[in-house]
Write a structure and sequence with these properties.
158 residues; mainly alpha; 12 helices; 73% helix; 0% strand; globular
Length: 158
């Protein structure tokens, strides 16, 4: 409970409404103090709650998601399903920058998003304008683009 109170205090709007560089340092310090999944989840929930109540701008999530994704990629798929465009957009960037890069794209991206069915579900939940952005983010990895799975998803959603 003590950690939860500390996190709540550290993530109050007045502590977050600062210059982007200072905000990134503030969040990095909080993460470095306790990078456990439980703490990161608590911080993520606190930020999302404040974004949804409009206590803080969603632009804060553009700084938060890349930082937290260095410790756990599971925050990216959750961001893709969020009702706020300001949360989904960094999620889409995270797909391209973190999930579908390198030789482990299948386990770090494809499998994490739930395979063909999971990606299809995510695409169906996105506003139409964001569908091509996510497809482009996924297909940016040439090894993925070459698989037949890509064609199945594209044929079902476009």
């Amino acid at each position: 409970m003590h950690t939860e109170n500390m996190i709540s205090q550290a993530l109050q709007p007045e502590a977050l409404l600062i210059a982007p560089k200072a905000l990134a340092q503030h969040l990095r310090t909080l993460v470095d103090n306790d990078p456990s999944t439980g703490n990161l989840t608590l911080m993520n929930t606190c930020l999302l709650d404040q974004i949804q109540t409009e206590a803080i701008p969603s632009s804060i999530f553009h700084i938060w998601l890349p930082l937290v994704s260095q410790h756990s990629s599971h925050f990216v798929p959750a961001a893709l399903r969020d009702p706020s465009c300001g949360v989904r957009r960094p999620g889409i960037k995270g797909v391209q920058r973190r999930l579908f890069r390198g030789p482990h794209w299948k386990s770090h991206g494809w499998d994490l998003l739930g395979g063909a069915e999971g990606i299809k579900d995510i695409l169906e939940g996105l506003p139409l304008a964001e569908v091509p952005l996510l497809i482009k983010a996924i297909s940016a990895h040439s090894a993925f683009f070459a698989t037949n799975k890509w064609y199945w998803i594209a044929s079902k959603n476009l």
